[in-house]
UniProtKB/TrEMBL annotation:
Protein name in UniProt: tRNA (uracil(54)-C(5))-methyltransferase
GO biological process, one term: methylation
Reaction catalyzed: uridine(54) in tRNA + S-adenosyl-L-methionine = 5-methyluridine(54) in tRNA + S-adenosyl-L-homocysteine + H(+)
Name of the gene: Trmt2b
Classification via Gene3D superfamilies: 2.40.50.1070, Vaccinia Virus protein VP39
Length: 417
């Protein structure tokens, strides 16, 4: 069943789901402790955790919490190539099918409605779906984003293949008409975007998001602030869960009126902006240019003037920023990377900056690449790798359940030195 593939814990009572996640985070910390011992770092008791682990903080909303869903277009169980839904199966076993998201508990009904309308639209279209690029076809995935304001943004990805500008314009007009005044009008979209994409994932720079209809942005409230969201900007997928997480980050950072907060991988600036009134300055770094535009707009709109945002790869921006750091104010770093973790040069810049005594690492996959980062932050100095700064030590771990019904959660690890 699709629900078992996408949300494997959905049958368990919520308290039991939290217990499953607690055990998996315990294993992560046990692994970290033993890996650190191998590196000669003195950890607590052998076989124990490297730092205290608090219980998993529950999500305020358990069902339909996702504010963003990505729907694929592929063969359905009945063989129809124009099925819009989520994947079941594996590429290795070659048994992938696309199944409608009707019974998936973490996807809100609004997302399911838009996905169903999109399916209806492409099934009426004479153009085929694009399942494998080299086999032709055009209609590709759909992303739906919603906010608590009732805003809905839909982004349709389309492979142009050999179509000319006129044929493309026709498809865009048909799509717009369908959602603006046709059968899809019931979705009441705030924004309808179209992206011509010749590869799996395109950034706005590689292939611009074209607004076919409605407003360029949707808006969300978080911790009393208003945030603007662009089509490709990162925003935590569980808004009420993110509020709980960011409040805790504020407390753990122990930032006060004298502190400078360094927000690495800052997205639309949510963490930095939500803590801006507690600190003297926020410096945000983010690779997605549109997200930085959003972050700057968010700061201005909310009347926050002590934030600066830098667009670019953290491994290019941060070493430059920190190597010339002469500010005497305490510097606290918050790192919130994708599953890929942070680049080695980012770790090195943080370790080699004496001003950073506290570091909060927020990881959505602590057993993955983040583990490598934890070890790089805590290992003994290694002049060969230019890791000369004093090592950090893990102090406290708190898991936050931002993804009920799935096996994932966000782990916040506090390091200090």
């Amino acid at each position: 069943r699709l629900a078992d593939a996408v949300t494997p814990l959905w049958r368990l009572p919520y308290q039991e789901q939290l217990q499953v996640k607690y055990e998996s985070q315990r294993k992560v910390l046990q692994t970290l402790a033993s890996r650190l011992q191998e590196l000669g770092v003195d950890v607590q008791k052998p076989g124990e955790l490297c730092c205290p682990l608090r219980p998993v903080v529950p999500s305020p909303v358990i069902n339909g919490y996702r504010n963003k869903s990505t729907f694929s277009v592929n063969r359905g169980p009945d063989g129809n190539r124009k099925t819009v839904g989520l994947y079941v199966g594996t590429g290795r076993a070659r048994n992938i099918v696309c199944v409608r998201a009707d019974h998936v508990k973490n996807v809100p009904s609004k997302h399911k409605q838009v996905a169903q309308c999109y399916e209806e639209f492409i099934r009426r279209s004479p153009l085929d779906s694009c399942i494998l690029f080299h086999e032709g076809g055009h209609w590709r995935e759909l992303v739906v984003r919603t906010t608590s304001h009732g805003h809905t943004m839909a982004i349709v990805t389309f492979h142009p293949q050999q179509l000319g500008q006129e044929a493309l314009a026709t498809q865009k007009a048909l799509l717009k008409e369908f959602f603006a005044s046709g059968p899809g009008a019931g979705c009441a979209l705030t924004s309808l975007y179209f992206q011509e994409s010749t590869m799996t994932r395109c950034s706005h720079e590689q292939s611009p998001f074209q607004l076919l209809y409605g407003e360029p942005h949707i808006f969300e409230d978080l911790l009393g602030l208003k945030f603007r969201i662009s089509p490709d900007a990162f925003f935590q997928v569980n808004t009420s869960g993110a509020e709980v997480l960011y409040r805790a980050v504020g407390e753990l950072s122990q930032a006060d009126g004298d502190t400078v907060l360094l927000d690495v991988c800052c997205g639309t600036g949510t963490i930095g902006l939500s803590l801006a009134h507690h600190v003297s300055k926020v410096i945000g770094i983010e690779i997605v240019e549109k997200a930085i535009e959003d972050a700057r707009w968010n700061a201005a709109f909310n009347g926050i003037s002590n934030c600066e945002f830098h667009s670019g790869k953290a491994e290019a921006v941060l070493p430059q920023l920190l190597s010339s750091w002469e500010d005497t104010r305490p510097l606290v770093a918050v790192v919130n990377p994708s599953r890929a973790g942070i680049h080695y040069r980012v770790v090195r810049a943080i370790r080699n900056c004496k001003a950073i005594r506290r570091l909060l690492y927020i990881s959505c996959k602590p057993e993955g690449e983040a583990m490598r980062n934890f070890l790089e932050l805590c290992c003994p100095p290694d002049p060969g790798k230019k890791l000369v700064g004093e090592p950090f030590a893990p102090v406290l771990a708190i898991p936050f359940d931002l993804f009920p019904h799935t096996v994932h959660c966000e782990l916040v690890l506090l390091f200090s030195r």
